């Protein structure tokens, strides 16, 4: 019998193991003092959303996205995220950064300003893409926020791992195959993350105004899912008929880029009926199932840093997978920065085990079963009678979760022995406690009931507390200066791009679509 991958990994010694590389992208709405989505433009003191490396916007002008650099430790990535938050919080005036994934009070699509990236062609392309999301899905859905966790392993690991496996592929191809190995197991197990980290069981009534739903009433302004862990990832979140028609293959890089590329080239009749322009204004990039790769929503993505003007598919095909992006994480409303150390360490443990465990190709029947398990935990994860299909049979979700956590224990021991300390055992212990006591979605509802507040007022109060915490802790003078310089440099870079642009946007878009 071939030696197991876990056994092979146990051959790593301290001198072979250099840890993980990680980064965080954290979204959050700017909200006014009454708990309503901010109508103000992006604060100029935060720099240009087009060119700033750390502070940008996602869909809406009010939806900030804070991006850490790539770090080699949990301490470093959380310190970087905290620094960005502290700088941002000092420039919000009377506004606050919303602490929850499900949004504040809204007043329909018109209340959600689409992000503005300036007058350059690349900036306008980003704006048109978001206009396309508006006509395809509506703006309300785009006000949801989350955390994206990016993870990779250094080349020193991959060279050692390749030697242990006796593999002779080019390194970029080997790494891509191994990242897809991880992704296949992630898709099998992602239901566990929704149980342990889903933290959006309730929402403001304005989010579902005029929408049919089966949520229960919490109070006159709040609805909630009786057993839901994450309304963000459920039927009220990112979905539509066109995307439900896709069959994106996550088994290997070639089929992934081929099926995703096909979706960008395949017309969708309802989008053709909308067209790409209203008068002189562009309202979507094209009329295909997807405008660009980023429109496809999945709980995990293979990623590669792109060069200027390069599309994500082109970068992946040319240079292979560089890192994976976990996209299914709700904001932790109890954390001032939306994510905790124990969560980051657990994600590292969980993702490495996805790489080290057996990972056969996913057939259509298994794909349907694992999608069902994921959806069931999103909508009913707190129902202790819920069963999911796991390891070849139907199991109670809590028992399946407990067995999967126990499966991670030997790897947690090994990682602690390689890196020193007890971070991974502590992270695993924290999730055992979460499972035994109260998952985050239950804690949210308990806190709301204890405070006697609905979703809007409870999250607004929590957001103010986080703001006070972050503002009390000043940035080091040199860090403050670095952020101020980044803001100035980004504004100058945007101005340079706008001054140099002399191609009409129509021609720029045609060239982009042909590339």
UniProtKB/TrEMBL annotation:
<dbReference type="GO" id="GO:0006750">
    <property type="term" value="P:glutathione biosynthetic process"/>
</dbReference>
<keyword id="KW-0436">Ligase</keyword>
<dbReference type="InterPro" id="IPR007370">
    <property type="entry name" value="Glu_cys_ligase"/>
</dbReference>
<comment type="pathway">
    <text>Sulfur metabolism; glutathione biosynthesis; glutathione from L-cysteine and L-glutamate: step 1/2.</text>
</comment>
<dbReference type="GO" id="GO:0005829">
    <property type="term" value="C:cytosol"/>
</dbReference>
<dbReference type="InterPro" id="IPR014746">
    <property type="entry name" value="Gln_synth/guanido_kin_cat_dom"/>
</dbReference>
<comment type="similarity">
    <text>Belongs to the glutamate--cysteine ligase type 1 family. Type 1 subfamily.</text>
</comment>
<dbReference type="InterPro" id="IPR006334">
    <property type="entry name" value="Glut_cys_ligase"/>
</dbReference>
<keyword id="KW-0547">Nucleotide-binding</keyword>
<dbReference type="Pfam" id="PF04262">
    <property type="entry name" value="Glu_cys_ligase"/>
</dbReference>
<keyword id="KW-0317">Glutathione biosynthesis</keyword>
<keyword id="KW-0067">ATP-binding</keyword>
<dbReference type="GO" id="GO:0046872">
    <property type="term" value="F:metal ion binding"/>
</dbReference>
<protein>
    <recommendedName>
        <fullName>Glutamate--cysteine ligase</fullName>
        <ecNumber>6.3.2.2</ecNumber>
    </recommendedName>
</protein>
<feature type="domain" description="Glutamate--cysteine ligase">
    <location>
        <begin position="17"/>
        <end position="375"/>
    </location>
</feature>
<dbReference type="GO" id="GO:0005524">
    <property type="term" value="F:ATP binding"/>
</dbReference>
<dbReference type="GO" id="GO:0004357">
    <property type="term" value="F:glutamate-cysteine ligase activity"/>
</dbReference>
